[in-house]
Amino acid sequence: MDRALTQDFRFDPDDHAGYRRWRAHKLRNRIKDVSELIVEIEDLEHPTEAELAALAARIRRVNLAVYATPAPDVDKAVLRRFAHRFGLGRLDRNLCADEDAITTLSVSRTGRKGDYIPYTNRRLNWHTDGYYNPPGREIRAILMHCVQPAARGGESHLLDHELVYLRMRDENPEWVRALMAPDAMTIPANTVAGRVIRGAVTGPVFRVEPDGSLHMRYSARQRNVLWKEDPRVQEAVAWLADWWREDDPWIYHFRLMPGQGILCNNVLHARSAFEDDPAAGRMRKLYRARFHDRIRLPAGAVEEDVEHAVVE
Ligand SMILES: [Fe+2]
Predict the structure, then answer these.
(1) Digit-coded pLDDT (tens) for 194-250
(2) How far is the CA of 168 from the centre of ligand 1 (A)?
(3) How much is the pTM?
(4) 122: how many CB neighbours lie within 10 A of its CB?
(5) Domains in the chain, please, with CATH?
(6) How far, in Å, is the centroid of ligand 1 from the Cα of 212?
(7) 130 Cα to the center of ligand 1, angstroms
(8) How many Å apart are CA 101 and CA 95, to the nearest integer?
(9) pLDDT at position 302, please?
């Protein structure tokens, strides 16, 4: 396989030859086993070149990787510097972020945060982050670090959005094209006590970035998402919803342990419900940083994924 050719593919619905080459390469490099996603990082403050390359190789293949460090309770500044090693510097400032724009995710018992599902212990439906952000504020990468898992539950489910593109294009290329329409998906305005705190946002589901990478904007929520009244959009959305009902082998399931973290190009994800146990001091606590940048893969990671390719 000529890598240069596969890298030329820019998710163009009309590029059939490019798609076939990219598809073959993508499937051959797919990581099947969750355990293969995990990279041990001895010191998050001083990751070695080999550790960085191992993470990059996984991200190149499936847009995500999991690191495991021996020190769960890191300083958020360390996370920022670690993210910076991957070209991630432009943090998104969402409504509930802490002062430093890295959000502490834990169950909120008082105040406004409790109105938003990420700050509760309820199940979190399939989505990509920032699907409600206006154009220009897309979330392209996420770093999620686990300080402490919940007493029970809180399993993460992740799926490479490029694989969703692939399977949808195989199923019906017209669905992919329909979801690329600039008016495919609308998130109505967020109004609190009669005041609009975020206007309505309309945009595509699949969008090709200027660098040729694929960005996905999606939420499986039934409420607060208005899908375009186009039969192809409606069919594509129904087909995706079917996917979430099954235990698809392409979906990764794992429960972040203390010191583990996810680094990803804002892939599709969901989370199961969880329970804290305050009496035992077992309260789920995660740090989450969302970036407008896409992960920049350090040089040296290019060939590794080919040499160690998993043969389909
Ligand atoms: Fe999320």
Answers:
(1) 899 889 999 999 999 999 999 999 999 988 899 999 999 999 999 999 999 878 999
(2) 22
(3) 0.90
(4) 13
(5) 3-307 (3.60.130.10)
(6) 23
(7) 8
(8) 10
(9) 47
